[in-house]
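Students often ask why we bother predicting the structure of a whole assembly rather than each chain alone. The short answer is interfaces. A chain on its own may look different once its partners are present, and contacts between molecules only exist in the joint model. In this exercise we take two input lines together and write out one structure for the complete complex. Read the inputs first and try to guess which parts will touch.
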Amino acid sequence: MRIDLGGPGPACSAARVRRLLAGELAGVEGERVARHVVDCARCQEVQRRVAAEKEDLARAVPFEVFAAGVAEKLALAAPRTPKVLRWAMPFAAAAAVALVAGTALVHRPRAEESESRSSAVRSKGGVSVQVFIQDAQGVRELQGAQVAVGARLQIFLHPSTRKYAAAVLLEPGESSVLYSGVAVQGALPQSFEWTGAGTATLMLVLVDEPLSAATLRSPADAPAGADVLQVPLRR
Amino acid sequence: MAGLRVIEGGRAAEQPGTPARNLPPGLLAELYEKYAAQVYGRCRWLLRDEHDARDALQEVFVKALRSLNEFRSDASPSTWLLKIATNHCLNTLRAKKATYREQLEAVQRERRQDTEPPERRELVRMLLGAAPAEAQEVAVLYYVDELTQAEIAATLGRSLPTVRKRLREFIAAAREALRIAVPGLELPEGDEP
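Now the answer. The structure tokens for the assembled complex follow.
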């Protein structure tokens, strides 16, 4: 039996119906879609699904529960490290198209680096990181170049099968957590500006179990079997 | 002193946690009324767990509130939110090592008793796990949100050839997964949707 997975129709789409219902379509386009929906079985099915979603939401997540959860998560998202990290805006998507891969050194902790670790060194392969810089010259790969004052840095992660990641900025005598959480494929949620001087290192640690990024102060602190990638920064 | 600082005017110019104190009155209720149902629906569909979906719903709106300027200026806030929700859930599933093979095998068991094809959206959801990470998001935008390839390219800031490539990757992975797990169920010929 053959099954068609679907896709956009010749004149309609689920997204367009959702936009119509959310009041995001105005003028001629809004009128056209509104007329179309009246006679389109596909679009009416989407409308029924939207109505069912509203009922599901009201039953499972009333507004009070939703608002309390959002407020709690916002509070939890507040800076937790004593040295407050401050984030910069992500690069514009259009600019990102022009980006080229940066370079990274890959290090996998050896068992002898910590007596408490297993002797196993695990490599899943394919883990890599790209670092991009945006400054007065535009957006390009970092490739060991000097980081100008005011330049923005964006980390793109390629975690392969790794499930969790941490990104830490290592400076002499200090470490700052840039990211800790699920090993996202692609850009980390936010970019940043390095305001230090001399040299520093961006350290990425990828693992299969949740890890505590606050304890990462050098590659030797990474859990056994982790993939550790280091990108040098200099100014 | 940590060598990092915020760039004013950026997406995260509002400090983490600040939106909780500075939300305009009624904003959260308005967002809930207009967008929460579709975001929750997307999270339920992908995660298949009410508790996880509720958590994901809240996470998505936290991201929206921390990126309020970007959210408000987007041509389609509903599409923007669904994209964030899809990404969040796909990453969660990856971290949990989604069990798409088991789900497909269940489809096969049910098919022995039922000649009806599986529900299209459910099949797409199961097949996502077989595809490369970057192809998953494109597949959701195409098969579920029914955006055209050009609309997907604009939404993701990717080129049209890249979007086509990702769809081909998804179809190839889906076809192979079906061949192994659900013999007798196959996709139409061709490597393009």
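Check your guess against this: Residues 20 and 32 of chain B are 15 Å apart (CA to CA).
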